[in-house]
Design goal:
about 110 residues, mainly alpha, extended, about 80% helix, about 0% strand
Length: about 110
């Protein structure tokens, strides 16, 4: 099994390969991220809390960890992050519930009862 340090080294190696494979796009994406998460109409802390919630919906483990750390550095609390995660969970569950209408429609269109 890989140690944490080995995992980090592997991740850095792949990040470098990704950068080298498309340096202009990589730089542009990095600049985009800096612009998106900078203070604006929403403070950086709020944006990072939103990112943690969104990362739970997209189920990206790297985003969850990275944005959780960034949110904590920006001053977010455990409670704020957990509330945001619950909002994300409700939205994901709500979408599944709402999409049940498509099943009902398909049943109706198929002549079901």
């Amino acid at each position: 099994m890989e140690t944490k340090e080995e995992q980090k080294a592997r991740g850095r190696r792949f990040a470098e390969q990704r950068r080298n494979a498309a340096p202009k796009a990589d730089r542009a994406f990095s600049e985009f991220g800096k612009a998106v998460f900078a203070d604006g109409a929403l403070p950086a802390k709020t944006k990072q809390i939103i990112a943690v919630a969104a990362a739970h919906v997209t189920q990206c483990p790297w985003c969850i960890k990275g944005h959780t750390r960034a949110a904590l550095r920006a001053g977010a609390t455990r409670e704020e992050l957990m509330e945001a995660i619950w909002v994300a969970a409700e939205m994901r569950a709500g979408a599944a519930f709402a999409h049940a209408a498509l099943t009902m429609e398909a049943i109706e269109e198929s002549g079901g009862d």
